[in-house]
Write a structure and sequence with these properties.
Layout lengths: L1 E5 L4 E2 L7 E11 L4 E6 L4 E8 L5 E9 L9 E8 L2 E8 L2 E2 L13 E2 L5 E2 L4 E2 L9 E8 L4 E8 L1 E2 L12
Parallel strand pairs: 2-9, 10-15
Antiparallel strand pairs: 1-3, 3-6, 4-7, 5-6, 7-8, 11-12, 13-14
């Protein structure tokens, strides 16, 4: 008998970045003993425990341990059980919840007086750039898992900076 299960339907990525068991694969009551392997692109480690049953069979339990993160969300994890010459596979897709991702775009370090059309996904400045727009802008994004912050210091110059010199060979 083979079965695979997620530790929880939803896995939460925490700021502490601690490894945790995300899935378990069990091959029960095998004689001879089954072999469990994991196929995945995820960077994790399987652990394995073997129990010898009173009737001479063996039960193998393998846990897949990793540090949940936004990169592990929607990744596939496949358990491959080999029993004699037969291979049984079962797969799950991880559902990982994580803190929001904060990205501040639009400030290219070259805001000058009277520049037009300065915008990004959150803030839109109508009209030309003025010295009043200089300052520190902070974006806080919060969800049920946590809060992340993005910060950008905006400096306004009197005129357009020339592009960096390039050397031709």
């Amino acid at each position: 008998m083979t079965r695979m299960s997620l530790t929880s339907p939803t896995i939460v990525a925490r700021a502490q970045k601690r490894p945790m068991t995300v899935a378990t694969c069990v091959a029960a009551n095998g004689k001879p003993q089954s072999v469990i392997k994991w196929e995945t692109r995820l960077k994790g480690n399987p652990t394995q425990q073997t129990t010898q049953n009173a009737n001479g069979t063996s039960t193998i339990r393998s846990n897949y341990v990793l540090i949940p993160s936004r990169e592990t969300h929607k990744q596939k994890l496949t358990c491959v059980v080999t029993y004699r010459n037969e291979k049984i596979t079962d797969s799950v897709v991880l559902n990982v919840q994580y803190e929001p991702d904060v990205k501040i775009e639009g400030f290219d370090g070259n805001w000058y007086l009277n520049r037009q059309n300065v915008k990004n996904n959150t803030l839109f400045f109508k009209g030309p750039v003025t010295y009043d727009l200089a300052g520190t802008y902070v974006c806080d994004a919060t969800n049920g898992i946590g809060t992340r912050t993005g910060i950008v210091d905006v400096n306004i110059t009197g005129r357009l900076r020339p592009p960096a010199a390039s050397s031709a060979r």
